[in-house]
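User: quick one
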Amino acid sequence: MSTSHWAWGPEPDPDELREMGRLTAAYTGIGDPAAWEEPVPFERVRLAPSRVPVPGELREFCSAEPYQRVTRTYGQAYRDLIRAYRGDFGNAPDLVARPRDEGEVERVLAWASAEGVAVVPRGGGTSVVGGVEARFDGPAVCLDLGRMRRVLEVDEVSRAALVEAGASGPEINGRLPGELRLRFFPQSYEFSTLGGWIATRAGGHYATLHTHIDDLVEAVRAITPAGVWESRRLPGSGAGPSPDRWLLGSEGALGVITRAWVRVQERPAFKVSVPVRFLSWEAAVAAVRDLAQSGLHPSNCRLLDAREAALASGGDGRHAVLIVGFESADHPVDAWSARALEITGGHGGEAGEAGGSPGGARQDREWKGTFTRMPYLRNAYPGLGLIAETFETAVTWDRFPALHEAVMGTFGERIAVSCRLAFAYPDGPAPYYTVLAPAIRGEEVAQWDDLKRRVSEVLLRHGATITHHHAVGRDHRPFYDRQRPEPFALALRAAKQALDPAGVLNPGVLV
Amino acid sequence: MSTSHWAWGPEPDPDELREMGRLTAAYTGIGDPAAWEEPVPFERVRLAPSRVPVPGELREFCSAEPYQRVTRTYGQAYRDLIRAYRGDFGNAPDLVARPRDEGEVERVLAWASAEGVAVVPRGGGTSVVGGVEARFDGPAVCLDLGRMRRVLEVDEVSRAALVEAGASGPEINGRLPGELRLRFFPQSYEFSTLGGWIATRAGGHYATLHTHIDDLVEAVRAITPAGVWESRRLPGSGAGPSPDRWLLGSEGALGVITRAWVRVQERPAFKVSVPVRFLSWEAAVAAVRDLAQSGLHPSNCRLLDAREAALASGGDGRHAVLIVGFESADHPVDAWSARALEITGGHGGEAGEAGGSPGGARQDREWKGTFTRMPYLRNAYPGLGLIAETFETAVTWDRFPALHEAVMGTFGERIAVSCRLAFAYPDGPAPYYTVLAPAIRGEEVAQWDDLKRRVSEVLLRHGATITHHHAVGRDHRPFYDRQRPEPFALALRAAKQALDPAGVLNPGVLV
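Assistant: Done. Structure below.
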C-alpha cells in the first residue's frame, strides 16, 4: 500500500481512525472525539509549484511530481503530523531525486553544488526533529535513498554485513542469511533506514551496552562533494580520531551515507524477561542504577512509571514496572537473570512471572506490541485535538532526581507527563518523556514549539543532553548550539566548508 | 628516584643491566653479551643550545635547563631508546614548560602562537610512535602536563571522577576514594597519563568490550588556541557527532587535553582466570573468535602463541596458551567462566587450574608480572645489540589468517617473531607482534625503520589498521595517510586550521 501523505504508514481507514481517537480519549482523558476533525485529503493540499525544472542530466531518477514532493516534505514529529493533516506543505522540496546507485548520488551533488540547490538526504523520513524538512529559503531537492536498499555482502566469519543506506529494518533482517540478524530495533524499525540511523545516531532496543547504532557500525561509506569518504572495515582502531565517529550524527550535513558494514549476530536462542513492580519510583530508579552498574548488561532494562505502565501494559496505575530481560544466542541466561532479580528485590521490587510462563510472557509481548504500534496510534492525535511531544535525554545519576522533578513539574494539571527510563548507563539513565496536552485548534504548532522550548530549557539547565537518540535536526538546533563546546562548533563548520564548499548539504542542520 | 635520560624508569644499575642482557640473550638467542655496549652518560650527551630564550611571561614554569630538555626529547619506542642510549638528543625541545594550571597552559599557547614556536604536549612520555618528539624544523616547546595531576572531584553516585590530564595510572587509583578504581591498565600504567591515554586512544587491560580509554571517558576538557573545548558530562548522547570522539586520538594536534571525567568502578571482588593450552594455533584462534562472539565479555582473553607463552609464562614452546578471565564487583563469575571453558574445550583447549588454585593463579600472576615488567626488560636491548619492534593492529576475522601468515613470513630465520591476541572483538582480533632481531651496531635506526616499513606494508595490504592502540605519531604517519579516507583528511585539516590557525600544535602529527 502506498504511503499516506500525512499518516504513519498507509492512509488509515477513516472509521478506524475515529475509533482509535475515541479509545485514546478514553485512555488519556485528553482530546474531544465529538469535535473530530478530518484530514485534508491529498487532492486539496497546499503545494507551491516547483521552483526548479527537472534537470536533464537527472531526469531518469528525478521528479517534480506532487505526490513525490508531498510525501517527502516532512518527518514524523507531531509538529509535522499536524501540518500535513491540515494540508500545509509549504516547505515541500522542489524536486525529489531517487538515485539507484552511488554514481547517481554523485550526479545529484555535482548538479546541486553547481546550481546552489540545497540537498536534503532522506531515508525512511521518520525524523522527529525536523531533520528532513527543507525549512529554509531557496530551492531544495530531496535526495531519497529508498532505491538503494540491498544487502551487498555478508562475512559470516566476522559476522558483518555490507548494507546500502536505504534499507529499512525489516529489509535488512529479511535479507541476511540463516540466523544472522542486525539486532537493532528502534520504534521506527518498520520504515527507518540504516543510513538514517547512522546519520542521526539512532537508539535501538538494547537498554545497555550497545544502545546506539554507533556500537554496531564497522565501517561507513559516504559521498561528499569533495569525494568518497570510505573507512576501512576494522573491528577496532586507534589511528587518529575515528572517521566513522565524524559521520555518526552528521545528519546529512557532511555527506550522503550510501552504505555501511554493520555487525550482525545470531538470533538469540535464550531469552528471559521479567516484569518487576515497585510502589516507589525512587526505589525503582535506584534498582536500575544498580543494574546498570552491575556489569550484567541486561538487553532490556526499561522502567515505566505508573502512568506509562498503566497505558502500555495494563498496570494498576500505582506501581512502576521495570522490564528486565536477557538474551543470548550462546548460553542460557538464568544466572544473569537470577542476579538481576536479587538486585531489584533488594530495592523492594516484586518480580512477576518470567517470560515463558503466562504472565510475564504476555506482559512482555504486550509491551513490545505497544512499542512498535505506538507510531500508528499517533495518527489519531490531530483529529482528536490532542497535542503530543515525546522527548528523550540522558543525564548523570546524581543529577537525575532534580531533572525529573523539574520536568514533571513544568506543566499544569491539564497536561499529562509520563516517563520511562529507556536506556541505562553505569553513569546515568536516558529518560524518555511523553507529554500529552489538549490542543488549541489551529494553534498546535505554536503550542508545540512552546512545549519544546520549555522542556528544552529544563534539560539544559539540569546538565542533560538535548537528545539521547533523536538527533538535532532543526527543532533542537538552538539548544544544541548552547550545549556543544564552541571550539568544536568552529571545527565542525570548518570541516563542513572543506567537504561541502557550496554549502548545499542539509542547510541549517548542525552548522 | 629521578628519571633516567634514556631508560624506562630511573637509571638502571650497570651490573644488573648487563645481567639482564645475559638473561635476554639466553632466552631469545639474539644479541651478544660479550660485545656489551655501555650507555652514553648524561654528562656526555649531544644537545644543541636552546634556540629560544625563556620568555619572561612564562619563566615561573618554563626552563631551558639541559636535564629538563633531554628527558623530554623522546618517547619509548626502540627507535627512541637506541638514540638516547647513544647520547643523541638532536631533536630536544628548546624549552620545557610545566604549567600548574589551565591558565598557564593558555599562556603557553598564546605565546607559542604569537611567536610561531611549535608546542609538543607531553604526558608520561611513553609514546612508541614518535608522538612526543620534536621531529621537525624550527623551535619547539615541550608542554609537560606532569604538574596537573589531581583528582578534582568524585561523583560516587554516578561513579565518575574528574581527573587532571597529567595524572598517571597509580596516581589516579591512589587518589580515588574507597573501593573505586579506574579499571584501565595499559602496559605503560606506571608512567602514562590520562591526557596521554585520551590523546592517543590508548588500550587498557580489558580484552573485550571496554578495550580503549574511549569507552571510559564521560567528558573531556581541552585548551585550544581558539578557546576552551569542554564537553558536557553525559552518560550517552545523540546530539551531533560526539565532541569527545574528535579529541580522542587527536594526539595534541587540535588542543591540549587538561582534564576529563572518567567512569570508575568498584574494585572486583570476584575473579576467575584460567589458562587453556592448545596444540593448534588455528584452533586457539577459533576459540577466541567464539568467545568474542559469545556475548560473555571476558575481561581477559589473551592468546599467546607458543613462543610468547614460553617466554612469558614458562610454556613448553609447543602449546599456545589462552588466558581467559572474568571479574566482577557485583557477582560470582563461575557461570560465565564455565561456559567460556565449554567453548574453548570445544576447540580442543585443555584448561589448567583456575585462579585461586596454585597452577592457574601462579600462571596468571606470572603473566601479569611479566606484562608490567616488560618495559624495564627493554633497557637491556641497546647494550646487547638486540633490536626490537612491537606493533599491534586489528583486522576482521576473515582476513586474519592471511595477515598472520604474511607477518610471520616477512622476516628471515635470524629474526624472531611472536604473536599474542591482546584484544578480541566480535568481528576481529587485535594481534600484537613482537619482532626481535640482531642489531647492526650503529645502524639500528635505519634497521628499525626498515622493519617498520615492511610490517606496515603488510598491514595495509591485508586490510588491517596501522595501529590498534599505539596512535599514529610520526612513525606511522605515511601509512596512516594511506589508510584514512581522503575527505576525512580534508575535514581534519580544516578543523585544525580553525582551532590552531598558527599551526603550532604538535606539527607533523595527523595533518
